[in-house]
Amino acid sequence: xxxxxxxxxxxxxxxxxxxxxxxxxxxxxxxxxxxxxxxxxxxxxxxxxxxxxxxxxxxxxxxxxxxxxxxxxxxxxxxxxxxxxxxxxxxxxxxxxxxxxxxxxxxxxxxxxxxxxxxxxxxxxxxxxxxxxxxxxxxxxxxxxxxxxxxxxxxxxxxxxxxxxxxxxxxxxxxxxxxxxxxxxxxxxxxxxxxxxxxxxxxxxxxxxxxxxxxxxxxxxxxxxxxxxxxxxxxxxxxxxxxxxxxxxxxxxxxxxxxxxxxxxxxxxxxxxxxxxxxxxxxxxxxxxxxxxxxxxxxxxxxxxxxxxxxxxxxxxxxxxxxxxxxxxxxxxxxxxxxxxxxxxxxxxxxxxxxxxxxxxxxxxxxxxxxxxxxxxxxxxxxxxxxxxxxxxxxxxxxxxxx
Length: 403
What we know:
This is Kynureninase. By secondary structure, this protein is of the alpha/beta class. The protein has helices at 4-13, 46-58, 64-68, 73-86, 99-112, 128-141, 158-162, 187-196, 216-219, 293-304, 306-328, 355-364, 388-402, and strands at residues 32-33, 93-95, 119-123, 144-148, 169-175, 200-204, 223-226, 241-244, 334-335, 347-351, 367-368, 370-372, 376-380.
């Protein structure tokens, strides 16, 4: 058998991103944090950033900060996420509401732009929020949901989409990375298949932004939404972002017409007149405090580059799969993620009937993975904050807990 610890040490020794691990807060009593795909660690610099904001931006400048910085923060920060992580040119990405609210806005805008089409297509195993919002939009607009049945490990394939889209399809909603298996969808090919039917394509990027280089513009994607508290380390409840391709500006009309999306915010007009460009998709007052933490993580990604983050993600997940084969497969544990690193995102999922209880044991011992009903453990590996030895120790802790 392979000396897994020696392999992990070798990978850490030649890891070009290793120095970045010191940028993150260590949690007392936690030996392995394997849930970065649910909630990223905070950065050590965050207390100083928050203190400076309270002391200066808010405390000294007071309401003047709206004119000096805060009013443009949603689009400025959106542009930065777009440039560093999404392959999106400026003026197409905005940081605004929660993932759920932004999904609603973009779904409603998309189906309203295809008034003669009756169907919304979504994978039957997609994250609950995506499915629930799609159900609500379909009910509001008298539309029909068409469900895509995909392999639970391999995820949605181009053929799955081609089999269901047609001249009735208004919108297709899919996750770029499956929240369960980590399967990585072929964004370019699927988007092309959707466009061939005349429908619009909306991508959920919650499990890919900050860990996988995404090329929204190059793929011709219409719409995308993603959260910022996973691999962007924005903290619990940090606001999500929306991407709307520039070709749809002035065409799509978002349904939540708030004052911050108006062309003249302070005109206090009697009727709503939308702002030009991506700012139209803002509704209410931007959550300025909630935008602070992610800015430090974007600095790190800029230093490291998203391509280097992706390469480390592959070595981390490859090591976990190798350790699974040698240590967990003999114990009856199932691999619920693709074996090929090119076909998966930043987490590996494994399954066993005892994992609900095993997770409780692991958490009590300071090893923090993520349990997903009915019997899956997700090992979420955030490349800038996770070492190969830490990832391996998580797998070995699962083995010992099963023993």
